[in-house]
Input
Amino acid sequence: MSVTQSQIVQRGLTNRCPNCGGKTLFRADKPLQLHSECPQCRLKLEREEGFFLGAMALNYGVTCCVFLAPIALLWYYGVLGNTVAAVVAIAAALLVPLLLYRSSRSWQLMLYYFFLPQHLPANRRELSGSEDENV
Ligand SMILES: [Zn+2]
Output
């Protein structure tokens, strides 16, 4: 059964394997460590060295745009004082990337397979099955 792009988005937003939908992306004993491949379907999660640099960029972008920019605007317009803005910004800069660590890796997988769904083994089997019918 092939995986649709909407399923890939749903699985990406809920930290699930894009191929089988299992809650198997991260190791149970080390919650911040990604499996090298999905234990259920054997999808290779880190496709190549540096594959998750995109996840770091996503994490950085979300931290800056969603959390730090509003704090800077509140400081700029005088809603937050200097000390409060600095403390909140430093706390957000330290905590938010840690909180988004797992999600950003899942988002990276989601984006990759959203644009290249034919790279999922579930979709490849579908394609090879249809090719067999034509032969
Ligand atoms: Zn899987």
User: Anything to note?
Assistant: The CA atoms of residues 75 and 81 lie 6 Å apart. The helical segments are 5-13, 53-76, 82-99, 101-115, 121-134. The pocket of zinc ion is lined by residues 17, 19-20, 22, 24, 38, 40-41, 43 (CB under 6 Å).
